[in-house]
Amino acid sequence: MKTPLTVAQLKTLHRQLGRPLRDMVRDNETEFKDLGLSDPATDETAIYAAIAEHPILLQRPIVVVNDKAAIGRPPESIAALFE
């Protein structure tokens, strides 16, 4: 990602997804473990800040249509945005 999302943009995206915040995080990345994000007690503020600072942690692809978003895995999940 050339231009990382801000915390405010991440919060908007989270709302648009309508899913738990941790669904937006790539938990297989080294940074996830290094930053201690695997701890279930990690609060949302820390998770937003970690994604903003380390955009590799953001799940992708994420497709946004109007005011709704979907994570593109599986690809079929995107179809609901067009219904």
Automatic annotation (TrEMBL):
<dbReference type="InterPro" id="IPR036249">
    <property type="entry name" value="Thioredoxin-like_sf"/>
</dbReference>
<dbReference type="Pfam" id="PF03960">
    <property type="entry name" value="ArsC"/>
</dbReference>
<dbReference type="InterPro" id="IPR006660">
    <property type="entry name" value="Arsenate_reductase-like"/>
</dbReference>
<comment type="similarity">
    <text>Belongs to the ArsC family.</text>
</comment>
<protein>
    <submittedName>
        <fullName>ArsC family protein</fullName>
    </submittedName>
</protein>
